[in-house]
Design goal:
This protein is of the alpha/beta class. Helix content is 37%, strand content 22%. The chain is built from seven helices and nine strands; from the N terminus they run αααββαβββαβββαβα. It has helices spanning 4-19, 22-27, 30-43, 66-76, 111-118, 155-160, 167-170; strands spanning 45-46, 56-61, 78-79, 82-89, 100-103, 124-127, 139-143, 149-153, 164-165. It has a seven-stranded mixed β-sheet. A two-stranded antiparallel sheet has the order 1-9. Helix 3 (30-43) crosses helix 4. The relative contact order is 0.18.
Length: 176
């Protein structure tokens, strides 16, 4: 996390770019922005030792255009030297060996089942629909009325699943 100040500047720039212009969304799809945020979430989160080796697995729960964006990202980047693998599943029971689960808006109703499925495993849950951090997701994207894209964070859930996210990222979380 030694590059956290650079990350903070980069994420702040992305938030400002997306929040100050409708053209920002015309030039960059929500799913591309989601993928950028997810990459930074994962890159600046310390996972427990037992989950810090091997490929980094991102699982998308439900059909979503983010899968394509994540695959494009995975072809060009890694997470702290780890190859990124992207899976898409339709059922919670099909989630295996994930480090992060992105819950598409169509599968938001499966959040309770997902929390039971992962229990205390160090698996980050990121949701497409706002407000789900109040129901136990770790992070939720929020599209504000001014067309800006932000995220909410659930500090207690991150701690419960032993995910130590950079304070620089958490400082950028949207608070109502």
């Amino acid at each position: 996390m030694k590059n956290a100040p650079l990350l903070l500047i980069g994420l702040a720039f992305l938030v400002l770019t997306l929040s100050t212009s409708h053209q920002g969304f015309a030039q960059i799809s929500n799913y591309k922005a989601y993928a950028i945020f997810i990459y930074n979430f994962t890159k600046y989160t310390n996972y427990p030792q037992e989950n810090s080796t091997g490929d980094f697995v991102i699982t998308v729960l439900g059909k979503s255009k983010i899968t394509e964006e994540l695959n494009l990202m995975a072809a060009q980047k890694n997470i702290n030297g780890r190859k990124i693998i992207v899976n898409e599943v339709l059922e919670v029971s099909h989630i295996k060996d994930a480090h992060l689960v992105f819950v598409s808006s169509g599968k938001s109703g499966a959040l309770d089942d997902l929390k039971v499925h992962i229990r205390q495993s160090p698996i980050m849950i990121v949701t497409e629909r706002d407000g789900l951090v109040k129901k136990g997701a770790h992070l939720s994207f929020v599209a504000l009325e001014n067309q800006s894209l932000r995220f909410e964070a659930n500090h207690e859930a991150l701690e419960f699943n032993r995910l130590n996210m950079s304070k620089s990222i958490l400082a950028l979380a949207y608070k109502e």
